[in-house]
Amino acid sequence: MTLLPDAGRNAPSPLPRLLIEPIVRAALEEDLGRRGDVTSEAVIPVEALMRGQIAARQAGRLAGIEVARLAFALVDPEIRTEIVKADGAAFAPGDAVLRIEGPARSILTAERVALNMACHLSGVASATAELVAIAKASGHADIVCTRKTTPGLRGLEKHAVRCGGGGNHRFGLDDAILIKDNHIAVAGSITAALERAKSFAGHMLKIEIEVDTLAQLEEALAIGVDAVLLDNMGPDLLREAVAMVGGRATTEASGRIDKETVGPIAASGVDLISVGWITHSAPIVDLGLDEVA
Question: Is 158 a catalytic residue?
């Protein structure tokens, strides 16, 4: 992975503690079990102190540093931490991202939860940043995530996407009306589904519909819609679809998006490219805790 530029103006606001604390507490409780960290208790003297840092083993984009910091604080308020790089920052191998000092037992107890969160979320941010860079080199499309997230971690993973310079699609089912193929099948047709949606939605609720052929797109445009999800269309078909829409709706491409396909898809002229794998399958970025003198 090459060193990625900073997120710049797309860098997200810090995560609120109200969101992350229940997640981190649950992860710590899972790891500590009924007895706690018996290894550190058995091996490390209670008075031992430690100075360390979380450092990168590879290049990437950072996300989840506040989550990692909170893991140490919840285990022991006497642990002192200093953020070296903020969420959204790029890092190179060897770069420190968080400095830590305090009781050695407590630091080692919190280590795995802190690293699990930071490695996973930085993996999401780094994968997003790679796609964003390719898409922007080929067109104007923004990369957005989907609802294909790890249960319980959606807020953190969507934050990580923003750290990588991407944007967020729906956070949940209540954000907007997104009519997909199964909705259309049950409703009977695109026209029937859209007419029902329009009679239901107020002026503040957006409506998007999924289509996979130009005939379906033509039917949707005839009724009127805020956005069209162009599903599993190749670049040539996407180019035709964008021309057919002619600015009457936001165009979003989805389906089988990866580093090889995102460039040609962005070049088709779509407004958005939604990608599920950046949250459900992105590989972790390797970060580790090292003791320092």
Answer: no
